[in-house]
């Protein structure tokens, strides 16, 4: 039996800055962001902005992510010449940061060796 997908209602905010987000782009972002909520259900809100950066020769797309979670918020940015690739890189970076945060919290809780503790008398 497959587990229910995480509830994205009100937790995901998508915005195109100087760019109209298509339905296809919104659905790609939503399906990829579900992975973040699967790893960390305590996320309050995820905000993703996609914006074009015009230079003299080429247009690059910047995807910016902001995760509101208990503790310090997380900010991530990814850039690419393709908007979908920038979004994919952004979600991957956010996922790595969430996993790193989780392992850091777990390692802080278990830093000392239990074998060094003296038994209570």
Topology readout:
Blueprint (H helix, E strand, L loop, with lengths): L11 E5 L6 H17 L5 E10 L4 E10 L5 E7 L2 H27 L12
Parallel strand pairs: 1-2
Antiparallel strand pairs: 2-3, 3-4
Characterise this structure:
Helix content is 36%, strand content 26%. It has 121 residues and is α+β, with helices and mostly antiparallel strands. A hairpin with a 4-residue loop joins β2 (45-54) and β3. It has a 4-stranded mixed sheet with strand order 1-2-3-4, covered by helices on one side. α1 runs parallel beside α2 (83-109). The model has no long low-confidence stretch (mean pLDDT 85). It has one domain: Ribosome hibernation promotion factor-like (Double Stranded RNA Binding Domain, 2-Layer Sandwich), CATH 3.30.160. It has helices spanning 23-39, 83-109; strands spanning 12-16, 45-54, 59-68, 74-80.
Task: Name a few traits of the molecule.
single chain; 121 residues; alpha+beta; Double Stranded RNA Binding Domain; four-stranded mixed β-sheet; 4 strands; 36% helix; 26% strand
């Amino acid at each position: 039996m497959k587990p229910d997908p995480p509830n994205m209602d009100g937790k995901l905010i998508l915005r195109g800055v100087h760019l109209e987000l298509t339905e296809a782009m919104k659905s790609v972002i939503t399906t990829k962001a579900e992975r973040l909520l699967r790893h960390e259900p305590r996320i309050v809100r995820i905000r993703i902005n996609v914006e074009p950066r015009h230079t003299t020769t080429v247009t690059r797309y910047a995807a910016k992510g902001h995760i509101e979670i208990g503790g310090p918020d997380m900010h991530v940015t990814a850039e690419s010449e393709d908007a979908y690739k920038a979004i994919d890189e952004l979600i991957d970076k956010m996922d790595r940061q969430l996993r790193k945060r989780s392992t850091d919290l777990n390692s802080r809780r278990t830093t000392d060796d239990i074998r060094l503790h003296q038994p209570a008398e």
